[in-house]
């Protein structure tokens, strides 16, 4: 559809009504232009349109206009929307497969710019919706990771003997797993490459408050300003989203 994202989403809605299974592949930042169509033409009708959201998170050299900072925040509040955040290329494949076979409403898979991690590829299978995975058992601290920073989170978890959870789904959130982590740990840390405000960590906060669970939570993600141009690793380092920066943020918060 070239640079006509609004039309692309409405066209996909028409295809879905006609019995097709459209996949709308759009950069995170450009999906902002089609927000009205996502809500009115797709979500309200609960159409099985899958959004393959490229450039989710820090894009680096493309600059401020292309940073995928807001998609989790602006999609999370839409009813009937499933949001998946893969941590490597294998999870990305599984989630794209899951979204394509999800028939009761729209779904979104947000993945970053760049190369895969080298993860082995498993046979395609639909994932159970809203279920995370505990990647490491630790003590006192539970890191709830949403998406691309899992490798950095794993280094931090090892250094701090923390529990590490690959949450995988922003919506539906794995509420049971979050509440289990809150009950068995002294503090929770949420981690995402999206704006902190309104992001996946905000969903964790909302759940804990709704269930009256009093546990300290540190939300780590993109700050409340437009991210400048720079290399991806350079920006992550500047924002404290590399392994050293994440550990430093947690230690400073705990001090």
UniProtKB/TrEMBL annotation:
All residue ranges annotated as the Transketolase-like pyrimidine-binding domain in the record: 1-119
Keywords: Isoprene biosynthesis, Magnesium, Metal-binding, Thiamine biosynthesis, Thiamine pyrophosphate, Transferase
Catalytic class of the enzyme: transferase
One Pfam family it belongs to: Transketolase_C
Pathway this chain belongs to: Metabolic intermediate biosynthesis; 1-deoxy-D-xylulose 5-phosphate biosynthesis; 1-deoxy-D-xylulose 5-phosphate from D-glyceraldehyde 3-phosphate and pyruvate: step 1/1
Transmembrane segments: none
EC nos: 2.2.1.7
Signal peptide stretch: none
One GO cellular component term noted in the UniProt record for this chain: cytosol
Gene Ontology terms: biological process: isopentenyl diphosphate biosynthetic process, methylerythritol 4-phosphate pathway; terpenoid biosynthetic process; thiamine biosynthetic process
Top-level taxon in the UniProt lineage: Bacteria
GO molecular function: 1-deoxy-D-xylulose-5-phosphate synthase activity; metal ion binding
Cofactor: thiamine diphosphate; Mg(2+)
PANTHER family: 1-D-DEOXYXYLULOSE 5-PHOSPHATE SYNTHASE-RELATED, 1-DEOXY-D-XYLULOSE-5-PHOSPHATE SYNTHASE, CHLOROPLASTIC
Complexes and interactors: Homodimer.
Name assigned to this protein: 1-deoxy-D-xylulose-5-phosphate synthase
Organism: Serratia fonticola
């Amino acid at each position: 559809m070239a640079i006509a994202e609004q039309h692309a989403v409405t066209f996909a809605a028409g295809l879905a009504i006609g019995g097709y299974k459209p996949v709308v592949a759009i950069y995170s930042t450009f999906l902002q232009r089609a927000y009205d169509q996502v809500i009115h033409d797709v979500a309200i009708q609960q159409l099985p349109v899958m959004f393959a959201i490229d450039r989710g998170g820090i894009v680096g050299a493309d600059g401020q206009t292309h940073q995928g900072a807001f998609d989790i925040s602006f999609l999370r509040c839409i009813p009937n929307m499933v949001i998946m955040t893969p941590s490597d290329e294998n999870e990305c494949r599984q989630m794209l497969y899951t979204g394509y076979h999800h028939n009761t409403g729209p779904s979104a898979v947000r993945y970053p710019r760049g190369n895969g991690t080298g993860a082995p590829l498993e046979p395609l299978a639909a994932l159970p919706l809203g279920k995370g995975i505990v990647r490491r058992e630790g003590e006192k601290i539970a890191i709830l990771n949403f998406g691309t920073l899992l490798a950095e989170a794993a280094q931090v978890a090892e250094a701090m003997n923390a529990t590490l959870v690959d949450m995988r789904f922003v919506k539906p959130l794995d509420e049971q797993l979050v509440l289990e982590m809150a009950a068995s740990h002294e503090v929770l840390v949420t981690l995402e490459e999206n704006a902190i405000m309104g992001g996946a960590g905000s969903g964790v906060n909302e759940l804990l408050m709704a269930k009256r669970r009093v546990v300290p939570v540190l939300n780590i993600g993109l700050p409340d300003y437009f991210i400048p141009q720079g290399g991806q690793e350079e920006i992550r380092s500047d924002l404290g989203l590399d392994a050293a920066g994440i550990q430093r943020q947690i230690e400073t918060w705990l001090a």
